[in-house]
Amino acid sequence: MTTVGFIGSGQIGSTVARLAIEAGHQVVLSNSRGRETLADTVAELGPRTSAASSGEAAAAGDIVVVTVPVKAFPDLPAASLAGKTVIDTCNYGPERDGNIPELDSKSLTSSELLLRYLPDAMVVKAFNNIFYKHLLSLARPARATDRSYLPIAGDSAPAKAAVTAFVESIGFSVVDAGPLADSWRQSTGTPVWGTPYGPYSDEKGRPTDEDTIRAALATATH
To answer: What is the pTM of this model?
Structure first.
């Protein structure tokens, strides 16, 4: 059993938390509005769930899921995340985050930018390419023939291994999409972003195999 900390508890964060609880993990949730605003979610997810400050969630997690707007990266508890495996689910959106020159020029990926704020963490990009309703509906047992694949990217082999084990435990298989420098291949608007799993109008989504994900990653253009 793993303890998973969450910094941010929006649609993707709460969906990953739900799948984690169903898989037998412990979950510590946090958000920017205070732990009291998570009372209903904690009650719904059950006794293996608790709410905390972002620093406490970071400290508690064997793995920590960061799922916040990119503009909030400077506010993350870097000291509490030192040495941690961090799953970055975040997508850059200038309309929400404001313009960030390094991301606009594509000299950095958003995950590389996150690593600048968390230099002592091991960052792995995951869960940023799938609609939260598809994430919930497409989870399958380990030996299911219609198990879907998700891409991950990262620079640390041990962190990738830990994230792969976690993703597999909650119902998906993994495609290694390379280092953080290549994580743009799964960012907003790329072929692997959303489309392989079906339209948003179909909340059940469609199972997506390894070859489909690899092909989508390969056809991405910068």
So the answer is: 0.97
